[in-house]
Amino acid sequence: MAQFDEVRHNVADRTSDLISTAMGFIGVPYRRGGNSAEAGFDCSGFVRAAFQQAQGLVLPRRANEQAAATEVIDRKDLQPGDLVFFNTMRRAFSHVGIYLGEGKFIHAPRSGAKVRVEDMQASYWQRRFNGARRVADGDADSLTAQALVQASGSGY
């Protein structure tokens, strides 16, 4: 039982680090193709930077690739740190944010805006919700390996 408690605390600590890191980016301006707090973020660059800084995980660069590389979960099973996806550009999985709990998520919304927290219950987001994903512990090795292959310029 002590081992289970240790695993549970590890997961909670990593999630807390992720949320704290993401919240630390509030106010960073949106920039298409941006992937740093200094230059600005687009939605997937924001998510990627938060996971890389907090957990050492390198997620794919684009929102649809992040959706494909992570575990599908039901909306009712959302937990803080999960990814939430939306259709904001007339295509599925074109926008991503990090779920915070209590129906809220943090994201880099659009040109002219800054990283902020929003309510998923707002009609705009409800109408565009595409699904939720979880970055599972087992994803860490494959995501890092995938990123290394992409960085080297070779494909699978």
What's the overall average pLDDT, rounded? 87
Write the element-wise H/E pattern from the N-terminal end onward. HEEHHEEEEEHEH
Helical coverage, percent range: 25-40%
Outline the biggest β-sheet.
6 strands, antiparallel
User: What is the CATH architecture annotation?
Assistant: Alpha-Beta Complex
User: CATH homologous superfamily, by name?
Assistant: endopeptidase domain like (from Nostoc punctiforme)
Fold-level CATH name: endopeptidase fold (from Nostoc punctiforme)
How many beta-strand elements? Answer: 8
Shape by Cα distribution: globular
Instruction: Work out the strand percent.
Output: 15-25%
Estimate nothing, just give the exact number of structural domains: 1
- Separate helix tally: 5
The largest sheet has its strands arranged as 3-8-4-5-6-7
Which runs of at least 5 residues are low in confidence (pLDDT < 50)? 147-156
CATH class term: Alpha Beta
Which structural class do the helices and strands define?
Answer: alpha+beta
Radius of gyration: 15 Å
